[in-house]
Specification:
With 440 residues, the protein is α+β, with helices and mostly antiparallel strands. It has four domains: 105 residues, Thrombin, subunit H, CATH 2.40.10; 102 residues, Thrombin, subunit H; 87 residues, PDZ domain (Pdz3 Domain, Roll), CATH 2.30.42; 96 residues, PDZ domain (Pdz3 Domain, Roll). Helices cover 16% and strands 36% of the residues. The strands form four sheets. Strands 5-4-1-2-3-7-6 form a seven-stranded antiparallel sheet.
């Protein structure tokens, strides 16, 4: 009897590809010595009034990563950070055939993107997606990718941990941890089980040197499936929303609630008329599990709801006053109420260059914000704008201008239009309220 991973590799490796990207960076040539002086840079630098007088130069930026063919018709999954900003994307198959790739779907929340290549020459080798919820700590896995551009490489390890939610590399933080060696270039590749099925897409490592220290993180295949399914069906990627927010149950909270141990998410806010409200969830309840899978914090709860298809239902295990009960959660798309009225602020106000919109549950889900929030939110800040100099960020809420409350975009426009002289702008950023005074 020979113990070998070779049969698994033979099955999975042909579906793992190398991805090469090319990006043209344009900058104005400020190479003369006088532009090293801050005074001249103020006028002739990229943001200066005479920047256009400088000749433009180009620089080519190349990068590499990995991808996985998930459909024999030519759909490839990779990490968004592998192809972000690319002008050209080139895919090299295991058999060394090369294709130009088209970007068909990008999901910044999960750091996943889907590419398409022309498979006119016939079906391509593809990989089967496993149910990542069946993984257990201690299961053997293989990581296949193109580390450091040396070519396709296979490393082995085990599942070190599941449901890691403290790794801040994407909005949906719920990762498989593995000690299989993952290095730069492995991103977007394959983490496979001993049946040769895809259980995750490597996306990040914990490292102090830039190399593998035995702590790597992969996006679970169940999240990959939601992104691929939207492309395969030609529908927009829409995730259901819970309509509630909460906090992890600490030891102190568990003791105060009479729980036997810290577990679940303590609900502190329920959106009126939202799915959680309709399911009977109330502030003070503890959501302990979704469809039988325990949730330890709000990130795990978001993942469990976010990987469900819109239109179905999910069963919540809820603890209320120490008693357990179940609730049926309707998996609904978040509503666009109120209408966004997306507007770019123009003119001479300090908010010039800020793109704002009315907050709605749909926009909150898109921006990974609390769905219970309301008001005028900044969705984008234009480069070289006054809003950028004011240090506004996407996700900031404009609460008031010159002490006039701004509950919606229409009111904000009127308040800006009538303003004269100096400016007093109040912004809410997370739990902080910031007021800036700008003289006229």
């Amino acid at each position: 009897m020979r113990l070998s991973y070779a049969p698994v590799v033979r099955q999975a490796a042909p579906a793992v590809v190398n991805i090469y990207t090319r990006r043209v960076l344009r900058a104005r040539d400020a190479g003369q010595l006088l532009f090293d002086d801050p005074f001249f840079r103020r006028f002739f630098g990229e943001d200066g009034p005479f920047a256009q007088l400088q000749p433009e130069r180009q620089r080519i930026q190349n990068s590499l990563g990995s991808g996985v063919i998930v459909d024999p018709a030519g759909l490839i999954v990779t990490n968004t950070h592998v192809i972000r900003g690319a002008d050209e994307i080139r895919v090299v198959l295991h058999d060394r055939r090369e294709f130009d790739a088209q970007l068909v779907q990008t999901d910044d929340k999960t750091d996943l993107s889907v590419l398409r290549i022309d498979a006119a020459a016939g079906k391509l080798p593809s990989i089967v997606l496993a149910n990542s919820d069946e993984l257990e700590v201690g299961d053997q896995v293989l990581a296949i990718g193109n580390p450091f551009g040396v070519g396709q490489t296979v490393t082995s390890g085990i599942v070190s941990a599941l449901a890691r939610t403290t790794v801040g590399v994407s909005d949906y933080r719920f990762f498989i941890q593995t000690d299989a060696a993952i290095n730069p270039g492995n991103s977007g590749g394959a983490l496979v089980d001993m049946a040769g099925r895809l259980v995750g897409v490597p996306t990040a490592i914990f490292s102090r040197s830039g190399g593998s220290h035995g702590i790597g993180f992969a996006i679970p295949s169940n999240m990959v499936h939601t992104v691929v399914a939207a492309v395969a069906t030609g529908t927009k990627l829409v995730r259901p929303w819970l309509g509630a927010s909460g906090q992890p149950v600490t030891a102190e909270i568990a003791e105060s609630l009479g729980l036997d141990r810290p577990r679940g998410v303590l609900v502190d806010q329920v959106h009126p008329g939202g799915p959680a409200d309709r399911a009977g969830v109330k502030p003070g309840d503890v959501i302990a599990a979704v469809d039988g899978f325990e949730v330890e914090d709000p990130e795990a709860l978001r993942f469990r709801v976010g990987t469900k298809p819109v239109g179905g239902t999910a069963e919540l295990n809820v603890l209320r006053s120490g008693a357990a009960r179940t609730a049926k959660l309707a998996l609904l798309a978040p509503p666009e109420t109120p209408a966004r009225e997306t507007t770019e602020i123009l003119g001479s106000s300090p908010l010039q260059g800020a793109v704002v919109a009315n907050m709605s549950p749909a926009l909150a889900v898109e921006m990974s914000l609390d769905t219970g929030l309301s008001g005028v939110v900044v969705t984008e800040v234009k480069p070289n704008s006054r809003a950028l100099r004011l240090r506004l960020r996407p996700g900031d809420f404009i609460v008031a201008v010159n002490d006039d409350q701004t509950p919606n975009v229409a009111v904000l426009r009127r308040v800006i239009a009538k303003a004269a002289g100096g400016w007093r702008i109040t912004v809410r950023r997370g739990d902080r309220v910031i007021t800036a005074t700008i003289p006229g």
